Amino acid sequence: EFTEFRKERGNMLLSRKNQLLLEFSFWNEPIPRDGPNIYELRSYQLRPGTMIEWGNYWARAIRFRQDSNEAVGGFFSQIGQLYMVHHLWAYKDLQTREDIRNAAWHKPGWDELVYYTVPLIQEMESRIMIPLKISPLQ
C-alpha cells in the first residue's frame, strides 16, 4: 500500500529539495508551544563566504526579537544548498506578526543590524505555515 502511495505521490511532484540543517548556537532550541499560532519560515540565500558575518550579526540581532517569545529556531545548511539560513517565528496571527516586526524598528540598534545584514543576502523568501494538529508546535 505504501509503495503504491509513493508512486502516486511521485507523479504529483515537480521537484524536491533536501537540506541537512544545523542550529545556530545563539538561538533558542525549538520547544513545544501552545496554540493556536501561525508560523513564519524566513529563508535567506546568503552570498558565499558570508555565513560567519551573518551569524555574528544575528547573535546580536536575536535579542531584539525575543520580547514576545516569537523566535522559535534559527538554522543554517550543512548539506544541500549551502549558505542557506532559515528562521522560524511563531505568532498568534498575521496582525501580531506585523505589530512585532514593526516594533523592532523602534528599538535602538535594530536598524543598524538590518543595514549590515541585507547586503549579505542574495535572495529571501517568507512562508506562512499553519501547524497540523499533531505538531508539537501549535
Automatic annotation (TrEMBL):
Q: Name one GO biological process term.
A: mitophagy
Among SUPFAM superfamilies, the record links this protein to: Dimeric alpha+beta barrel (SSF54909)
Q: Which InterPro entries match?
A: Dimeric_a/b-barrel, NIPSNAP, NipSnap_domain
Q: What GO cellular-component annotations does this UniProt entry give?
A: mitochondrion
- Domain (NIPSNAP) spans 39-136
Q: Which family does it belong to?
A: Belongs to the NipSnap family.
Q: What is this protein called?
A: NIPS2 protein
- Classification lineage: Eukaryota, Metazoa, Chordata, Craniata, Vertebrata
